[in-house]
Specification:
Blueprint lengths: L6 E5 L3 H25 L12 H30 L9 H4 L2 H11 L13 H26 L5 H17 L2 H32 L7 H4 L1 E5 L4
Antiparallel strand pairs: 1-2
Helix pairs in contact: 1-2, 1-7, 2-5, 5-6, 5-7
Bound molecules: protoporphyrin IX containing FE.
The site of protoporphyrin IX containing FE has 25 residues, from helix 1, helix 2, helix 5 and helix 7.
Length: 223
């Protein structure tokens, strides 16, 4: 017969944070698929005149691109101004060398993991780095978009992003770096999913499901 193990249950992610996570996930997957298709439009024969497929794929890329921009802005606002400071508290660990040592040691099964907020320092710095890449993708994507749509939103994007072409030297370079940086997301997703599952097992807590349910739970007695 199994005995119930006492668990603690903490609310860590609000509904809006969870919605943003999954919206961003959907947008990034769609951007990767459509982006690589734009780079290599294999469904249309070489020299063929069927541009409709490319048009729809570009359309899906732009829509998901604007979703990513909106979620990035919303998430930046929530990071600084949300009522819960569970994310902001993690900065304390980032600036504390002891917390880095504790986290790295705990990953090698030496000692416990003590976090001030919801993220460990290595995790926080990784997410911050990814945010910078997302900002680059949004700015370079808007610069590419503005060179096709000169009016309306495209026109506004051009005024904001003109410097990008000057900085990189050409539109071709912007496109090249927009393409190269896409690989960061593929590497990130693989490592992120692996680490989410692994830390759940290692630290006996509700790692993956917390971004669905919002709750973290773990046995009262932890190692
Ligand atoms: C995770 C984010 C993103 C990824 C992985 C991604 C990926 C890609 C890739 C691989 C290409 C093809 C580049 C090439 O031709 O070699 C591309 C093109 C493009 N992307 Fe993105 N992108 C992202 C975000 C965005 C955003 C936010 C926008 C703007 C709303 C955007 C707008 C564009 C445009 C306008 C093109 C050029 C399409 C063309 O040449 O016809 N992208 N993207």
């Amino acid at each position: 017969m199994q005995h119930a193990i006492p668990h603690s249950r903490d609310k860590i992610f609000s509904p809006v944070i969870r919605i943003c996570h999954w919206l961003r996930f959907a947008a990034i997957i769609l951007l990767l698929v459509t982006g690589f298709y734009i780079a290599w439009p294999f469904l249309t024969a070489y020299g063929g005149s069927d541009n409709l497929i490319q048009g729809w794929v570009r359309f899906a890329h732009l829509i998901s691109g604007f979703v990513l921009i909106a979620v990035t802005l919303a998430r930046a606002y929530l990071y600084f101004f949300s009522r819960s400071d569970i994310e902001r508290r993690s900065v304390k660990d980032v600036v504390n060398p002891k917390s880095w040592i504790t986290q790295i040691k705990s990953y090698m099964w030496i000692g416990k993991l003590n976090k001030a907020g919801v993220y460990g320092p290595l995790q926080f710095v990784t997410y911050f780095g990814l945010t910078l890449v997302i900002v680059f993708m949004c700015l370079s994507g808007l610069a590419l978009h503005a060179n096709v749509y000169h009016e309306g939103l495209g026109g506004i994007a051009w005024t904001i992003n003109e410097w990008m072409l000057v900085w990189m030297g050409s539109l071709a370079a912007v496109r090249e770096w927009h393409h190269i940086a896409s690989w960061v997301f593929i590497i990130f997703i693989l490592v992120h999913v692996y680490m989410a599952v692994w830390t759940g097992i290692r630290f006996k807590h509700n790692s993956v499901d917390s971004i669905v349910s919002g709750y973290d739970y773990h046995p009262m007695k932890r190692d």
